[in-house]
Amino acid sequence: MKAGAFDYHRPTSLAEAVRLLGALEDARPIAGGQSLGPMMNLRVAQPAHLVDLAGLPELVGVEESEGFIRIGAMTTQRALERSPLVARFCPLISAALRFVGHQQTRNRGTLGGSLCHLDPAAELPLVALALDARLTIAGPEGSREMPFAHLPAGYLATTLAQDEIVTHVSFPKASPISLYAFNEFARRHGDFAIVAVAVVLDMAPAGAVAHARIALGGIDAAPVRASRAEAALIGAPPDPGRIAQALDALSDFEFVGDHLYTAEYRRHLARVLTERAIATALAASREPRS
């Protein structure tokens, strides 16, 4: 199938893009189009107007600031994959990108497009949740900031207004005491994950876990933080007993299932992948750092 009829708009300024989204009935912004395009071809989405953000160079690039790296929402996944700033200051993004689609889709897919499409099994929304990313959002009243955690509003739905656009995403720089790992299970490399896990552990000098972040994708309508599992790890060395408590806490969630992968199967995957991700992160603490 092919997409239904629509009107195409290519604004040359952010203000024009915001105005078009507010003025046009049933308008959708399009970034890289790697998710919206297939949905339109399948007639799952049939917007009357497309507002293409590709003509807005101010939404592209990676910048270092005090304590953060700031990434333009239209920066492609391939550019993030090749960015030395991302690799140095936000290695969890680099780890997750190894699982994102294929190079052809990463050449066009964007950070902002992935976050705002908000597929529950997509890798970059999971990383944004695990790292407490913050969004800069442009609208008719100017710019505002919001934690990424406040963006989800259900399956493939966000809290953004019709005439708002995510312009930049800020990620905190990785601390020297941070350990991280990303893991997922999919039928084939490049497919959306059945379940995915992102883990970040901040270690105290004595070997205890000072702060833990565990985010899960593919188990609900949007990525979720495993708060009770995080709390089980904090305040003591991550010995097998503590890790077992954290894994047991994953039973808090009401796992979703479908005709292919049951809720119980996803529950099993979440436990196995989280255990592996924690082990991967802790193994890095025993490796010499450059």
**Percent range for helical residues?**
25-40%
- The order of strands across the largest sheet is 4-5-8-6-7
For the record, what CATH class of the largest domain applies? Answer: Alpha Beta
Indicate the proportion of strand residues.
15-25%
Quaternary state of this entry equals single chain
CATH architecture of the largest domain: 2-Layer Sandwich
Mean pLDDT: 94
Low-confidence stretches: none
Shape: globular
Task: Please tell me about this protein's structure.
By secondary structure, the chain is of the alpha+beta class. It folds into 3 domains: 7-50, Uridine Diphospho-n-acetylenolpyruvylglucosamine Reductase, domain 2 (2-Layer Sandwich); 62-172, 2-Layer Sandwich (Uridine Diphospho-n-acetylenolpyruvylglucosamine Reductase, domain 3), CATH 3.30.465; 178-284, Enolase-like, domain 1, CATH 3.30.390.50. 32% of the residues lie in helices and 23% in strands. The protein is built from 11 helices and 12 strands. The protein has helices at 14-23, 36-41, 77-81, 84-89, 91-97, 103-108, 111-117, 123-130, 227-233, 240-249, 263-284; strands spanning 7-9, 27-30, 49-52, 62-65, 68-72, 134-139, 142-147, 165-172, 178-185, 195-203, 209-217, 224-225. A 5-stranded antiparallel sheet has the order 4-5-8-6-7. The chain has a 4-stranded antiparallel sheet with strand order 9-10-11-12, sandwiched between helices. The chain has a 3-stranded parallel sheet with strand order 1-3-2, covered by helices on one side. Helix 9 packs antiparallel against helix 10. The mean pLDDT is 94.
